[in-house]
Amino acid sequence: MKVVEVAAGLVYREGRYLIAKRKTDVHLAGFWEFPGGKREPGETFEECLGRELFEELNIRIGTPVPFQVVRYQYPEKIVELHFFRCGIESGQATAVDCAEIRWVWPHELEDFEFPPADRPILEALRRQSV
Asked: How far is residue 58's CA from residue 77's CA, in Å, rounded to a whole number?
């Protein structure tokens, strides 16, 4: 089964995380997620994250800090998600290549529907904010 490698950003500002709603014409449409995307050949996960956040949200980030790796098997593919903590260095987050974005407090994350692969991250963030 194909493994899709993804870099995702836990973009943090003043106690809140940036989340993005997936567009209607993509895998897991309508779910909320931590922004990021698929790694291109020859790209590091950090480079991938920087490129994806610029393409999707028009922001540049500082040096991403590794947080956690989650491997999850969907019926059609396996995703390996590399999550990084990061902050915005320049730009104002805008929903360029996603349906919508929001800044949410850790305790509000449970109010949004995320893909099953993100559950370990949601739990880790909830534990840290208590």
From this structure: 29
The listed CATH number (3.30.300.20, 3.40.50.300, 3.40.190.10, 3.90.79.10) that belongs to domain 3-129: 3.90.79.10
pLDDT per residue over 43-59, tens digit each? Answer: 999 999 999 999 999 99
pTM across the whole model: 0.93
Three-class SS state of 50: helix
The C-alpha atoms of residue 104 and residue 8 are separated, in whole angstroms, by 16
For the chain, how many residues are written? 130
The percent helix, strand, coil of the chain (3-state, each to 5) is 25, 40, 35
Give the closest residue to 33 by CA, choosing from 51, 21, 48, 50. Answer: 21
**Rounded alpha-carbon distances, angstroms, from residue 47 to 7, 36, 76:** 9, 11, 27
